[in-house]
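Q: What would this complex look like in 3D?
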Amino acid sequence: MANEIILEAKNIYKSFSGVPVLQDVHFEVRKGEVHALMGENGAGKSTLIKIITGVYSKDAGSIWWEGKEVQVSSYADVQKLGIACIYQELSVEPPLTVAQNVFLGREPRKFGLIDHKKMIKDTEALIKQYGFPLKATDLVSNLGIGLRQLVEILKGLSCDSKLLIMDEPTASLSGKEAESLFGIIEKLREKEVSIIYISHRLEEVYRLSDRLTVLRNGKNAAVLNHDEIEPRKVIKTMIGKEVDESAGSAKEMRTNPNEVVLDVKDFSDDIGRFKNVSFQAHKGEILGFGGLIGAGRTELMRAIYGIDKHKSGTATLNGVELKYTAKSSIQAGFGFVPEDRRNQGFIPLLSTVKNVALTNYDIIKASGPSISDKDERDMGIRAIKQIDIRPDNPDKEVGLMSGGNQQKVVLGKWIMRDLKVLIVDEPTAGIDVGAKDQIYAILEDLAKQGVVVILVTSDLQELIRVSHRILVMRKGSIIKEFNSGVVTQSMVLEAGSGIVD
Amino acid sequence: MKQQNLRRIISLGMLLVLVALFSALSKYFLNPNNLLEIIRDAAVPGIIGVGVTYVIITAGIDLSTGAEMALVAMVMANIYRYTLIPIPIMILVGILVGLLCGLFNGIIVAKLHLPEFIGTLATMGIFRAITYIIAIKENGTITSQPMKAYSYAILGKGFGRIYFVTIAFIVISVIGQIVLKNTRFGTNLYSVGANPKAAELSGINIARTRIIAYVIVGFCAALGAIFTTARLQSTTALLGDGFEFNPIAASVIGGVSLAGGYGDILGTFIGAIFMAALENGVLKLQMNTAYQYVIKGCIIIAVVIFDAWFNSVMEKRAQEAAAGGKEE
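A: Here is my prediction, written as C-alpha cells for the whole assembly.
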C-alpha cells in the first residue's frame, strides 16, 4: 500500500453564510485504495466531496491531482481529470440500453450515424474486463436498482476514470445486491482504481476500506489504517469524547408507568422493509426510534399511520384496531409530521391560517353551507400564540418563513386537534439551533398532556435528549431497546450498526 | 426491448381490429383504393407527428401545430396573390416561416422555461391571430385564397393513387426513425425526456436539444401546410383549426409516453393510420361526423389509461425479475 497519492485535498476551508462547515480539512487518496469517509450527519462529508467534484468552490486550500495542483469549477472539469461520481439518486437513462448509457453524449459515429456495433462491442469488452453481470443490449428500465448502479459505475470506468466516488452506494440495495457490489469494488481495487467510499455503515467500511478518514464537526478527527478500524473506536472518534448531559450525549432512560396507548404487534410489509415489528407506547411518553438511514423506521411509521400498506400485523389505539388510512387515523387521534417537510408537510403558497386549517376542517364550525372564516382564523391565531410561530401574521405565506417556523406550522395544525399519538419524522432537519429547542419544548409539552410522541430521528443528540425511551431499528427489525440506565450516543450508534452485546 | 415490442403489437392489433370492424360493417371500407385514401389522409398528421413525437419524447408537448400550418399557408397565399415570386421560392419561404414558428416555441419553452402546455397554447393563439391579420380580404371580409397554379397544385397529386404526400409521409417517417435511433440527437431526445439531470451530467445541451425538436415540428407543420393547401388548391384563415389534436393522438396511440422518454416514429406512423382509418370508417358508416370526435376522445382516454396501467405492470415485473432470488 505504499502507492503514490492520486488525490490530495489540503487545508480546505469552507463556510456557508458565516458558519464554518470545513476547517483545515486534509484528505488524501492513494492509487488503488478504497478510502472510506465517515462522520455524523453534518460533519462535512458531502461538502468536502462537493468541493472535490467542483460543485462548491472552496474558501481556502488546494486540491492536488496526480502531484499537480488543479482548479476545478464544474463536474465536467473533474471528469476530464478522471474522477467519476456515482450519485445516490442514480443518473442513468431508463429508456436506453446499457451501451447507450455508457456512451451517452460521446457515442462512436460513422458517417454521422451512431455506430451501434462498435458501441456494443466496446461496452461488452468493458463489461468483460470488470466482470459485471450485465449485457450491453439490456434496457436499463428492465434492470433493478443494483444493476443500474453498476451501469453508472461502468459509465465512470469507460471514461478511464482513476477515481470513483461512491456516496452511500448501498443505501437502496438489497443484501444480495450489496454483496455483489462489494465484489466489484474489490475487483476494481485490483485494477488499481481508487475509490472514495462514503457510508454510515460501519461493517461495510470495515470490510472494504484500506483506510478511513473520519470527520467531526468539519474537522479531521482521524485517519485510520485498515488494521486500526475497530468499530467501537470509530464510533468514539465520530462522536467525540465529551459526555455532557445537557447537550444530549448521554441521558438516563426510563419506562413510563402509564397505560399503553399504542400497541403494535408483528407489523411486516411484503418486501421486508420492516419485519415483525412489535412495540408499545405509553401515555405521555416520548418514544425515540434510532437507527441508520434505510433501517425501515420511516416506512414502518407510514404504514402504521396508513399512508402505505402493510402485509401482516396489527396496530391498536386504546384497544381499538386502526383502519390504516390516513383519514381514519387522523380521526382516531393521530398526527403525522413527515420527513420531507417542504413536499409533504405544508403548502408553501398558503398562509399559516390555511395550513393549520387544512387537516382540521372537520372540527372547524360550518357557517351555513361554507366553513366559518372566523373559526378558521381563530384556530390559526391560536396555533400562532400557542407555539410562538413567527412572523405572527396569520396571513403570511408559509413558504416564505424560516425552516423552524415552517415546522411549527406543521406541528400547529396537529396540536389543534385532540391528539393521542403524534409521529414526528426528522423534525429538525435543516433547522437552526434556537428553533430546534423550541420544537423540543413543544414535543415535551405534548407528552406532558398525555400525548404519545413517536420521534424518528437520525440526529443522535436529538434522539437522546428528547426521548424517554429508545428503540433502535436495524434492517427492518427492532434490534435493541434502551429503557433504563444511562444511554450514550455511542451505545445507540453501536446498536444501529449491529454491535449488540 | 420486450416491453416496446409488446406495445407495438398492441397498437398494430388495435389497428387490425378497427379495420376488421369497419370491413364487417361497411362493404365500401376494405378495398385497395379506400385503403390508399386512408394512408393519404394519415400522411399530414403523420408527417407532423414525426416532429411532435420528438417533442413528446423530451417530455414536452406542442399545441400550436394547427396554427403553424395556417400561418405558413397564409404567408404563401400572400406571396402567391401579391408578388411574382416563383412557386419554389414561395414554398421555401413557407418552410422558413414554419422553422421560425418552431424556433419561437423552442425558445420560450427551453430558454424562458415556460411550461410547454402554456407556452404552445399561447403561440397557438399568436400564430392564428397573425394569420387573421395577414389574411386575404375582399371588401374588408376575410375570404379563402385560391392557389391553383399548376406547379403548386401538382403537389396535391401523385402517381395515380400513390400521392406525393403519401410518399413524403413514408420517406419522412423512415428518416425520422433513423434520426431517432441512430444519431446522437435522437439519443439525446430520449435522455432529456427520461432523466434530464443525467443528460446534463453527460454533457448534453438540454435547451438546444429541446429547441431543435420544436424547430423540427415547425418544419413538419410547414410541409403539412404545403401538401394540404396544394390538395385543396386554396387556403383560409381557419386552416388546421383543431388539427393539433391529430399528431398528438397519433403519437399516444402509437405508444409515445406523454411523460417522456418512450416511443418512436414507427409507433406514431401506425397511430396516424389508425386515426385516419377511424375517420374514414365513421364516414363510410354514414354516421354524423360529430361522433368522430367523441370516439377519438374516448380512444385517447382509454389508451392513456391503458399505458399507465401497462407501464406499472411492466415496471413491477422488471423489479420482480431484478429482485429474483433475493433471500431474506
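A: To summarize the key features: Chain B has one domain: 3-311. Chain B touches chain A at residues 1-3, 178, 182-184, 187-188, 190-191, 193-195, 197-199, 201-204, 261-262, 315, 318-319, 321-323, 325-328 (CB under 8 Å).
Q: Very helpful, thank you.
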